[in-house]
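Feature request, filed as a ticket because there's no other form

It would be nice if the structure record came with a short human-readable summary line next to the tokens. Right now we just get the raw output. Example of a typical job, pasted below so the devs can see what we mean:
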Amino acid sequence: MDDADLGVRRPRPVAPGSRPRGRWAAPPGLARFRDVLHLDDPPGRLALSLAVGVFLSFTPFYGLQTLLAMGIAIALRLNRAATVAGTWLNLPWFAPVVYAGALRVGTMVLPDPAGLRGAWLAQLLSQPGSLSWRDLPLLLDHMSLPLFVGTSVLGGIAGAVTYAVSFRLLCRRRAARGAPSASGSDGCPPSVS
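Raw output as currently delivered:
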């Protein structure tokens, strides 16, 4: 009696680099990050490209972030795929939380002695239907600078964290693959493990 008669399925051999059938599919963000890990640029350049993309994902230019990422990646000679992937890590359903936090940070950083921003923000949050299209220029005048400052601060923090984490992960990945990082020629410290 063999295994097939007992209802036991033996796993089929899998070619190196391929995914066996029946395995769970990685979430889209993880799959994108894994694709970035397979690029051949030095870890420092990949981490910087990813960090610039994450910084751009926090900008208030929603909808233009991918184009901005491509332009900046070309201008600064960064890895275009990693920069664009970085902009995609800030997903649309996080945008209201990110922009609300950025507006809060911006209003804390910038002085507002008359308290006009707070009044506009309170009216916008408490009675959003009371605003008309005629109020839009005045609202933008009072809120755009704090939003830009807040997104810059939060984007800078997120970009710095992204650089540190991705650089370390990329160096570990290279060390696990046996890449020549013992001499530190690719920018990784020799002791990263």
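Something like this underneath would help us a lot:
The chain has a mean pLDDT of 78.
The helical segments are 28-37, 43-57, 65-76, 80-87, 95-109, 116-126, 136-176.
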